[in-house]
Amino acid sequence: MPQTKIAxxxxxxxxxxxxxxxxxxFIDTSDEWIQERTGIKERRYAHRTDETxxxxxxKAAEIALQRAGITAQEVDFIIxxxxxxxxxxxxxxxxxxxxxxxxxxxxxxxxxxCSGFVYAISVADQFIKTGMYKNILVIGSEKHxxxxxxxxxxxxxxxxxxxxxxxxxxxxxxxxxxxxxHLHSDGxxxxxxxxxxxxxxANHWVDTPVATFDDAPRGEMFMSHSMIDxxxxxxxxxxxxxxxxxxxxxxxxxxEALHQNNLQTSDIDLLIxxxxxxxxxxxxxxxxxLSDDKVFNNIEKYGNTTAASIPIALxxxxxxxxxxxxxxxxxxxxxxxxxxxxxxxxx
Length: 347
Ligand code: ACO
Hints:
By secondary structure, the protein is of the alpha/beta class. Helix content is about 30%, strand content about 20%. A five-stranded mixed beta sheet has the order 1-7-6-4-5, with helices on both faces. It has a four-stranded mixed beta sheet with strand order 8-13-12-11, with helices on both faces. Helix 3 (about 55-70) packs across helix 4 (about 90-100). The longest helix has 22 residues, at about 240-260. It binds acetyl coenzyme *A. Acetyl coenzyme *A (ACO) binds near residues 159, 246, 276 and 277.
């Protein structure tokens, strides 16, 4: 059976740097509050009109393809992870297919938020191992800056997010590559970290914790004015609830991957956690007793870029020479859903 390797990796972050102090011009917040709670110093915001989730993805993908030594026409499947697609539908995968003039290949969007990239890698791994595809382009890209609540109501979440994209090309290999992937979900907390609209839940099948919207009659537009007024078109997060679950599930899913492969935490050469919050990553590091050089964080520069955070961090770690051939690399993510997962790979 073929194994799966990362043959090429690329990233793109917008030029526009937005520091915490820059945010204080339009949000009631402070550099001190943001750094102390999240470790974030600055993030990138995409150009309002000229950059989209897809255009950023294409830039990251071009680098990944070039490093893998293949052309866009040789890609035989696209998997695109994002929570901020250009359109509500269709997904961004087909927009990449069009923009990069690819063949009429399959394109799949994955809507698993912070763990979207790990889910995408896992799906791609199955396609490679069964021999169905040979060059899969996996992308994580987000343009959060366009849809954040910059009022005091949404400041706990709006200061966290940043924009950017990362991409990898997965190919078959004889050597061990992706050793295993592990995916989980617990929908009990679906409303703890969510954006309710556009959605079709207005008939109250869900008792949302911030529900103040009027009933929208069937057939009405996706978003009524009352929904917009009640901020249901912005991400909502119960931060402490997310924190509490994340610090349990991150270590658990990393240990699950290690156990399955008869490995121990001391075997990890580099852990790349989803860049949710530096405090969460530090907690996980402490719990697994990993030294500083075994955990890669770049949240201070880019904030939380959701599905893009792992491929951006992986790319940056690789470019900095922190990943060598044969290294054991662990990717782990936790986020909205809740969904979480890990991928263990030999580089
Ligand atoms: N600036 C200043 N004050 C703020 C801000 C802000 N940006 N946001 C919230 N506050 C205030 C609140 O109004 C509140 O004030 P009060 O005590 O007067 O009522 C106070 O700070 C505490 O608010 P909390 O929401 O309880 O803030 P908390 O201390 O929990 O920190 C944070 C918020 C950083 C989001 C934290 O809960 C956290 O780290 N949660 C983990 C979730 C996470 O990292 N999510 C990332 C996205 S999801 C993912 O990727 C997994």
